[in-house]
Design goal:
Helix content: 10-25%
Number of strands: 9
Oligomer: single chain
Radius of gyration: 15 Å
Number of helices: 2
Largest sheet: 7 strands, mixed
Low-confidence stretches: none
Structural class: alpha+beta
CATH topology: Nucleoside Triphosphate Pyrophosphohydrolase
Order of helices and strands: EEEEEEHEEEH
CATH architecture: Alpha-Beta Complex
CATH class: Alpha Beta
CATH superfamily: Nucleoside Triphosphate Pyrophosphohydrolase
Number of domains: 1
């Protein structure tokens, strides 16, 4: 059911993670220019003010790829027709349920979906974005990135066949 994944899950150390069934994001590389579609997250969102990739909560019926593509369409307005998925990796979690917080789901994971497009696609930011920008892959380190994305970059580079 659409939207049934909206809600919190238990995270490590008493934290919470968005997505009752986990979450997924799209690391979209423009094939002809080696740029990545990055999202400067609105301040009211989880990890607001940081740069990351479009993504969000998975619904109960969705695969990680389905969720990442849906979220990218919602947050950037891209067409996913020309997008080719190269690989996926669970880049955070799973985090078990917390018996002390039974109202929160457990087994949360974040899946990064790595894909390419034939060129930089046109984007239109939604209310969850301060800005969307195609950033050269070699310049990602100049942005104030989400810590989880920084941790995921070696796995993403591996999927892309890039040595660190």
């Amino acid at each position: 059911m659409y939207g049934d994944g909206d809600g919190w899950s238990a995270g490590p150390g008493g934290t919470k993670r968005w997505g009752k069934y986990g979450a997924a994001g799209l690391f979209l590389l423009a094939e002809d220019s080696t740029t990545v579609l990055m999202q400067h997250r609105a301040y009211w969102t989880a990890s607001g003010g940081k740069w990351g990739i479009p993504g969000g909560a998975r619904d109960s019926h969705e695969t990680a790829v389905d969720a990442a593509l849906r979220e990218a369409v919602e947050e950037t307005g891209i067409s996913t027709v020309p997008v080719q998925v190269l690989g996926t990796a669970v880049t955070a979690g799973p985090f078990p349920a917390d018996p002390a917080r039974a109202e929160l789901s457990g087994n949360w994971t974040y899946t990064t979906v790595v894909a390419k497009a034939p060129a930089q696609l046109d984007v239109v930011p939604d209310e969850e974005s301060l800005e969307l920008r195609w950033v050269p892959l070699g310049e990602l380190h100049t942005l104030d990135l989400l810590p989880a994305l920084v941790e995921a970059l070696p796995v993403i580079h591996e999927i892309l066949g890039i040595s660190n």
